[in-house]
Amino acid sequence: MKLDITKGIQRKGIDVPFALTDVWGEDRWNGDTVAYVRPVSLSGTYMLADETVIVRGVARAAIESPCSRCLRPTVTQVEAAFEEAFARDTGEPRQADDDLYMYSGHVLELDEAVRTALLLEMPSRVLCKEDCRGLCSQCGADLNVHACSCQKDLNHSNPFSALASLLNEDEEV
Ligand SMILES: [Zn+2]
Ligand SMILES: [Zn+2]
User: In 3D, which of 125, 95, 96, 101 has the Cα closest to residue 115?
Assistant: First the structure.
């Protein structure tokens, strides 16, 4: 996602509106592979103050990641306020703790800043639905689709296993 700041260079101190979209593929987040399933957008304004470019706007994306309970691919709509300063790269050595974004020429590369802003807005646990029942920890069955018998066996210890098998026979009739 590249922002051409030619207009801003000609009009320093003026907010210049812009709107960008870009198609991104897969990414890594929280140990999972995630995917940007629609074009990522950033719209807002930028302004040149001396040689530093201030970019303000809103970033939007639809990010698909596994449900943290059942692993089903789940799309989260993410909207992030964006405000970053980009310093012109003068080629001079910089301090190691200086985490300013840099640019050179008349084009800003925004990918890393936009990505960081978006992923900060992701919920720590993505759920396919509020009451996702998740996977059975014993047999791995998706409990949203069908109940397995593991939980039953766990609750009803030996004295009841005869009853459980009776019930199972009933179900089969
Ligand atoms: Zn789920
Ligand atoms: Zn099970």
Answer: 101
What was the pLDDT predicted at 165? 52
> How many whole angstroms separate alpha carbon 142 and alpha carbon 125?
18
Domain count, the chain: 2
The answer to whether position 148 is within a domain reads yes
pLDDT digits (tens, 9 = 90+) for 102-151: 999 999 999 999 999 999 999 999 999 999 999 999 999 999 999 898 86
Q: Which protein residues have their CB within 5 A of the ion that is ligand 2?
A: 136, 138-139, 141, 148, 150
Residue 66 is assigned to a structural domain of this protein: yes
- Looking at the CA of 67, name the nearest ligand: 1
Residues 20, 86, single domain; the answer is: yes
Residue 127, both tokens: 């759920």
Predicted pLDDT of residue 169: 52
